[in-house]
Please model this.
Amino acid sequence: MMVLGEGKPRRRWPTLEILAMEFSTAYRFPIPEVLIFLYVFFPLFFSHVARAIPVSTEEASLLLVISLSQGVMGLITLILILRNVAYGLANEIKKGLMQTYLTYPVGRGRLLLVKLISGILVPIGFVATSVLVFTAINFPELALKYPHVLVVGLASSLGEILLLGSIMFLSAIIIKRGGTSLAVGIALMFILQIADLALSITASITGWEGLWHIRYLLGPSLAFLTYYQAPGAQAGVVVSDGETFVPEFWECMGYLVGHYALIIAICLASLIYFMRRFEPT
Amino acid sequence: MNVIECRGLVKCFGEVVALNGLDLEVPRRSIFGLIGPNGAGKTTTIRICLGLLKPDSGEALLFGEDPWNNPGVRTRVGVLHEHMAFPTSLRVLKFLEHVARIYGVGDARRRALEVLSLVGLKDAARRRIGGLSAGMKQRLGIAQALIHEPDLVIADEPTANLDPLGRTELLELIARLHKDEKMDFVISSHILPELSRICDFIALIHAGRVHISGRLEELMKEFGRAFRISSSDPRRLLSKVRELPYVREAYVIGQDLVVEVEEGSEGSLYADVNEVARKAGVELYGVESKVATLEDLFRRVVLRGFRR
Model:
C-alpha cells in the first residue's frame, strides 16, 4: 500500500490556486496574444486621431484621447467580460465545475472574488494599462500636467464598463446557464444604450435637470466631457428655467462616486446572494 | 461523534419534495452505503452534507459542524460527485498539483503522481482533462478526492463509468484505504451487490426519508429469516399464510411467495405450510430458506413502503 501524506505541508493559498486554474482556463492561447494586439493597436490609432481633432482646452484633449481609445477597446473589453461571465461563470455553474470548487476548502466569498478578478477585473486591468501607457507615450506633457484629468477620465470610462460587467455578473449567478446568460448580457448592452438615448431625448424635451443627473450618474464620462467642453459632448444643456446646465467639477466627482457606489452595491448584492443563497446546479 | 448527522432534513425544489424529514447518522470508522431508487434523495442528502445546498428546515452536521460556507471542515473531506466536472483545458498532473496545494499538501507534484498511480492514471498525467474518457475522468475524480488523505470520502455513484475491472479495483481500494488508512466512506450507489461487498452500515432512502438504517450484518440477520415457497397459486396461498401468527411479512415475487417469520419460528413454518396449502386448495411444489440480500431490503422498502 502506498503511503500517502508524506511531505511537509506547505502554507496554504487555496484562493490563489483556484485563481491560477481560472487564468489557465480563461486566458489560454491565443486570447492574451489577441488582446495584447488589440490593446496596442487601438490606442496607437486613436492617439493620432485625437491629435488631429481641434479642441478648446488641453484637458479636453487629454480626456478625448482617453475617451476615444477606450471607446473601441471598451467594446472589446465588454465582449471579453461577457464571454468570461457567460462561459467562465454561468456555464461552469451549469456544468458542475463551480460545485467542484465549492467542495474545496475555500470560502464562498473568496471563490466569488476569484471569479470577479478573472472575469471582470483582469479585462479592466488590460484596458486601463493600455490607455495609461499609450496616453503617457503619446501625450506625456498633458498626462503630467493634468494627472487628475487622466485619473477621472480613466475612472469614469472604466466605471461604465464595470457597471455593465457587474450587472452581467449578478445575472449570471442567478441564471446559472451560459447561453441564457450570454443572451441576457447582450440584451442588457442594448437596453442600456436605448435607455441612455431615451433619457437624453426625454431630458432635452422636458428640460428636467433631474434626468441629466441620472444620465450623468449612469455615464460619468459624459459629465466630464461636458465639463471640459470636449468636442462631441453637449456644451451644456438647456433646462426648464431657460438656463444652460453645465455640471461643476465637484458635481462630476459626485456622479463618479455615485456611479462606483452603484457598482459596489451590485457586487455586494452578488456576494450576499452567493454566500447566503447560491446553490450550484 | 458521528461523521455525519442529519436531523429532520427537508428540501424542496419548487413543487418537488426531495427530502421529507430525513434523519441520518453516519458513525466513525465505517463504510456507509446510501441506497435508494432514483429520486429518493441520496444526492440531495450528500449535497446538503457538503454545504452545497441549504436545507429548507432541519440540520446537517459534518464532523459536528455546519458545512455551509465552512472551508475548515471541508479540509477533512474528499468528494467524488456523480458527474464530476474539471477545468478541461488543464493537464491531469497540473490539475492535481493545484488541488494538492489547495489542501496544503506538501510536495504537491510527488503526491499527485502517487494518487495517479493509485487510481491507474499515471500514463495520462500529461494529457488534457478534456481529452480523457468518462472512465478516466472518474478515476481522476477519485484521485482528487484522495489526494489530501481525508478523514472522510463522500462518493456519489463512484463506480459509474468504470469498467468491471475498474469497479473491482475501486472497491478493493476503498476497502484497503478504510482498513489501512482509517478513512471513512459514505457511498451512494444503485449497484447493491457492490455495496454489500464493502459496506459496514447502510441507510435505505426512499421518498426523501431513511426507511431502514443500521449495521448491514445485523440487518441481514434481522431480515434474513425468509422462505421462498413455490406453489400452484401463490396469491391464494398469500392470504392464508399471513394468518399464521409468527409471519412478519409475506409477498409475492413472480411465481413465488416470499415469507418472513419471527426469530425461532423457522421450524414452525416448515410444519404449518403444508397444512395451510392443503386447506387453501393449493398444490405445494417446495419450500426453501432464503438469505436476505440488499435487493430484498430494497424491494421491500421501495415496492412495499416498509419502514422501521
Summary: The CA atoms of residues 73 and 303 of chain B lie 38 Å apart. The longest strand of chain B covers residues 16-26.
